[in-house]
Each structure stands twice: as C-alpha cells, then as structure tokens.
Amino acid sequence: MDVIQAVRWSDDGPGVRIVDQRELPTREVYRDLRTVDEVYDAILTLAVRGAPAIGIAGAMGMALALDGTERDLATVMLRLAEAHGRIRSARPTAVNLGWAVDRVLNAALRDPSRRAMIAEASAILDEDRAMCRAIGEHGATLIPDGARVLTHCNTGALATGGIGTALAGVYVAAEQGRRVQVYADETRPLLQGSRLTAWELERAGIPVTVLVDGAAASLMAEGEVDLCIVGADRIARNGDVANKIGTYQLAIAAKHHGIPFYVAAPTSTFDPLTANGGQILIEQRNADEVRHGFGAPTAPVGVDVYNPAFDVTPASLITAIVSDRGVHHPPYHFAERGGAS
Asked: Exposed site from 53, 55, 144, 337, fewest CB < 10 Å?
C-alpha cells in the first residue's frame, strides 16, 4: 500500500513539510513552513488537519520560534511564550495541539535551545507513528474479512504522523489479507471525507465509496454497513468524544440499527482533566465555509450560519474505544492519557 506522509521535517533546513490538504484531491502539493506564523496559518486554515497531525505540526513549529539571533535568555523565553500561545490558539478543540506544544515548551524550559525542541518534536512524531501502528493492530481485530466499514471525516495518514487512527485498522486488516470495503461520508461543509479519505484510500488501493452525509442512516437501514469507525479530537474522562461535526448523528443511527460504533484515537487525544463532553470547547468555524463553499455561493449572502467544527458523542453510544494500548469497553473512566482505570 502507498500510504502518504502528511507532516515531517523539511529536507532543506529548518521547516515543517506538509501536504497542503486544501489542494486535494485535484493536486498533491507539498509546502515548507518556515515560521511560527506560517505554522499557525496552516493549522487554522486546515492546510494541515487531524488532531495528531496538527499536534505534530505545532510541536515542530515551536522549534521555528528561535533562529539563533537571540542575545539573552529573556529574549528566548519571550519568543517561546509568544510562539506557544499563538500556535496553541489556532484550534482549541483538539487536545493534541495543546498537549504537544506544552511538551515542547517544557523541553525548552529544561534546555532553551532549538536543538532540544527539535529533539522533542521529533520524539512526538516518532511516538505518533508507533501509536498509529498499535491502533491499527488493535483496530484490525474488530474488522472481519469482507467487512463494510462506514467512516466520517478523515482519520488516515493525512490526519496523523503515521498510518492513521480509525483508518489504521482498515490498513492493517488489508495488509493481513482481509477484504475491506469503506463507505466515506463526504463530511460537510469542507468535504474531508470525499476530498481526503476517498483520495487516500484510492491511493492505497482500498475500495471506497463516497456518500452524502444524509445518506448514512439509509445505507444502514439497507443492511450495507457492518460497523462504523471514526476518530476523535478529544476524549473526556467518562468516554464522551468530540469529533468532526456529524459524528453524533452517525452514532445515533448506528445505535438504532444495532451496528457497532467504534472510536479510534491515540494516547495524546485522551483528556483526563475534562470530566465529560459538556466541558469541551467546540470550535466555531467561519460562516463562509457554508455560505461560499469552494467558491460558488451556496447560501444567501449574509444569512446566519451555525458552523461548529465538532460535536460531542456521548459515551453511551460508543461500543468501544480503540487506543494504542488496546480496545477499551464501557463503562469508561480514563484517568490518564490512553489509560483506563
């Protein structure tokens, strides 16, 4: 399988190389981000997206805050604090971003050098790759031969530093010789399912069918779905999950039709400090993403728009949560990142 690498260090000097996901599926464009502002903008505008991937990009971006011209420790600390605050604010719902930049900042407090920050960000990337593989191994145990899998948004290599989260199980199952058919919700309003998931799966040789979000329940009613697997941007201590808008209604439909509904996420996505989904800050996106779509007007100019990036799926609707540490079953109580007590 040909699995893409969505975020990594630039080859030609300090920088973060990303696949610009705004250009997909028509063009495969790589960009090198050289400044904190460029990293902030790439995360904010979804050039790089997916909770693990933006965490990695943010961590790498912290290393760009220093350029060697700093004259004293006070200047170093000021630049690091400014970079930390700016990058962290780009997308508030995904816990990985704050976790990753906090980790790099803490490394810099111990050793205020670009070398130390590069080493910490590289460790985060390497750990994410290993976590993705482990999630895939655990997730594949839930996918039988011939399975028809429904997913939402993009949870593959484009969203992580490795082979993905929810799609990692699909990739591993395919590696193991199992036949897997994926149904990908288009995922309104930015179409991460049709633009990214379908592109990525076709590239990897996995059969994929795109459906409009509103058709998912009908597809289930027709008996065409064996299981659902989605990712997560934040998982609360009680197992409530924040994920791309539309996940909640998918879980309700799956529950009604008796279809297993799984969530897959790495250790860094578990947030034991958040007791339940009601405490999760939901990012509100620009109204023009709905009114203007991809250039053509799709609603009256100036009409009010409700455009949350995420919704919260209650733990009661989730069959199991897959992490790099295994498959967790309810009742959920995540007392530490990726762990259950």
From this structure: 144
User: Rounded to an integer, what distance in angstroms lies between the CA atom of residue 309 and that of residue 80?
Assistant: 28
- Tokens matching residue 248: 């909640």
CB within 8 Å of 9: residues ≥ 6 apart: 15, 16, 17, 60, 118, 122
> Which of 41-50, 79-88, 207-216 has the largest mean confidence?
207-216
pLDDT (0 to 100) of residue 96 = 86
Q: What DSSP assignment string belongs to 184-248?
A: EE--TTTTHIIIIIHHHHHHHT--EEEE-GGGHHHHHHTT--SEEEE--SEEETTS-EEEETTHH
Q: At residue 171, what are phi and psi to the nearest 5 degrees?
A: -60, -45
Q: Which of 128, 185, 213, 233 does the annotation list as catalytic?
A: 233
Do 251 and 257 contact (CB within 8 A), yes or no? no
Listed in sequence order, the residues at least 6 apart from 306 whose beta carbon sits closer than 8 Å to its beta carbon are none
3-class SS shares of the chain: helix, strand, coil, % to 5 = 40, 15, 40
Pairing of strands 320-323, 208-211: unpaired
Closest among 82, 79, 87 to 60, alpha carbons compared:
87
Which tokens go with 140?
Answer: 């594949």
Question: Considering only CA atoms, which of 277, 197, 222 is closest in space to residue 24?
Answer: 197
* Domains along the sequence of the chain with CATH: 7-131 (1.20.120.420), 142-328 (3.40.50.10470)
Q: Is 20 a catalytic residue?
A: no
Reported as a single tens digit per residue, the pLDDT across 137-189 is 999 999 999 999 999 999 999 999 999 999 999 999 999 999 999 999 999 99
Size (the chain), residues: 341
3-state secondary structure of 263: strand
